[in-house]
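Students often ask why we bother encoding 3D structure as a string. The short answer is that it lets us treat folding as translation between two languages. Here is a chain of 82 residues written in the first language.
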Amino acid sequence: MAKYLKKAVERPKEDLTAVREAVREIIMRVKEEGEAAVRYYSGKFDTWSPRSFRVSQDEILDAKKKLPQSEIEDIDFSRPIP
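And here it is in the second language, the structure alphabet:
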């Protein structure tokens, strides 16, 4: 018989309807409006509005230099290298 040192407290089930609807709206707007919608939500959620959302190859390489080798290997494994 199992002996519990500590038993998890049951949490009430959450109604995720509003979250699903918000995500659905965001995806729809990005699909329809493209970068304009991305810019809107970036400002709304992150208060970040760069001149461009494109990341240069140099910025990618600089960021990659800051990662541990194991993370670089994980990223390379999970995406095809062009």
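Translate back mentally: The longest helix spans residues 17-33. Keep this in mind for the problem set.
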